[in-house]
Amino acid sequence: MIRFENVTKRYADGTTAVDELSFEVADGELVTLVGPSGCGKTTTMKMVNRLIEPSSGRIFLDNEDISTVDPVQLRRRIGYVIQQVGLFPHKTVLDNTATVPHLLGTGRAKARARAAELLDLVGLDPKVYGERYPEQLSGGQRQRVGVARALAADPPVLLMDEPFGAVDPVVRERLQSEFLRLQQEVRKTVLFVTHDIEEAVRLGDRIAVYGQGRIEQFDTPSAVLGAPATDYVADFVGADRGLKRLSVTPIEESDLEQPPVVHLDDTLPRALDAPWAVVLDSADELHGWISGAHAAERTGSVREHARRMEAWLPLGASLKQAFATMLQHDAGWIAVLDKDEHRFLGVLTPAKLHEALRRSTAADAQAIARAEVQLESVDAVVGSL
Ligand SMILES: Nc1ncnc2c1ncn2[C@@H]1O[C@H](COP(=O)(O)OP(=O)(O)OP(=O)(O)O)[C@@H](O)[C@H]1O
């Protein structure tokens, strides 16, 4: 757990980079710090591993005041990933990754074996990439080595300063997905700096939106998008808030419609209650669809006339993915399968997608109204004392 208590950093020239900052990051939580250039994100981060010392206030790691901990000892508990990865150019990828555990006293063979596991975990086959040198990697691959190296000493805390900032948007999105998958597995306590609100929303369990040296809002992605606390946050989050909200709202079972269903070995139905039906195989897995008008004019089995359906997603995928899938396949609806991607659950239509989006906005508005009521009642109790 990381806790900031009234932390201020004033540089020698009088710049106040961070002003009376207080917040807490729970164990295993990923908090993104987002805000415009120069608002104090990096300063915040570097105070955690004592690359910068606060002017006042205190920072705790697992309830221990870090100003009382030797910085070298402290940094062993904290992995650090930065944009310019800083790999050793003359060492192979495997040796780069194994460096820290080796320095900490793990035998070379064991450190290399662990490094190979970590490279695998970040999506780099150690057999293919282990013996390469950093200059023989793409920018995205170098970033992955940076993440593997930060994880090598198995620190409970990770500080990541724009780690995916230097790669193109497509690679960046892939790295983000891989990092999320990795975080599910390793559950580190992570502070992640970015100036990109999309990235902050996608990765953060909670987001700290920075104004100048201060946090303007510290909340879940969907609350930041759905109910910005101040005009500043609303501006920063931007006009395309609806689109961003799509990326944090998952498809739920109640969003789905149930169209007619036929099986591959059925005879072609004479009439359908809908313009089309979903076609399942004998194991009830999705095969495709048939058009009612097409079926009405023909004979034979469903198998002979069914069309394949590629536009599908598992339950829990985001509404943004659903929207993108509809566009990509030029589809008026998409099929939704269970999380294991086997059982067919129903279909999502554009109308239902819109309803889901509204449901998500309304839920946040209610949560905020409830929070205000609670605050008022606390005030009332305090006032009556
Ligand atoms: N060593 C320093 N001396 C004086 N001022 C500094 C120093 N380092 C940072 N600053 C100032 O402190 C403020 C916060 O800087 P910081 O690097 O924390 O911002 P940031 O939000 O990380 O910005 P960016 O997104 O551009 O990296 C800025 O105004 C910066 O110019």
TrEMBL record:
Domain ABC transporter: 2-237
InterPro entries: AAA+_ATPase, ABC_transporter-like_ATP-bd, ABC_transporter-like_CS, CBS_dom, CBS_dom_sf, Gly-betaine_transp_ATP-bd, P-loop_NTPase
CBS domain span: 306-363
Keywords in alphabetical order: ATP-binding, CBS domain, Nucleotide-binding, Repeat, Transport
Keyword Membrane among UniProt keywords: no
Signal peptide residue numbers: none
Gene3D superfamilies in the cross-refs: P-loop containing nucleotide triphosphate hydrolases (3.40.50.300)
Taxonomy, superkingdom: Bacteria
Molecular function terms, GO-annotated: ATP binding
Pfam families, alphabetized: ABC_tran
Family: Belongs to the ABC transporter superfamily.
Listed name of the protein: Betaine/proline/choline family ABC transporter ATP-binding protein
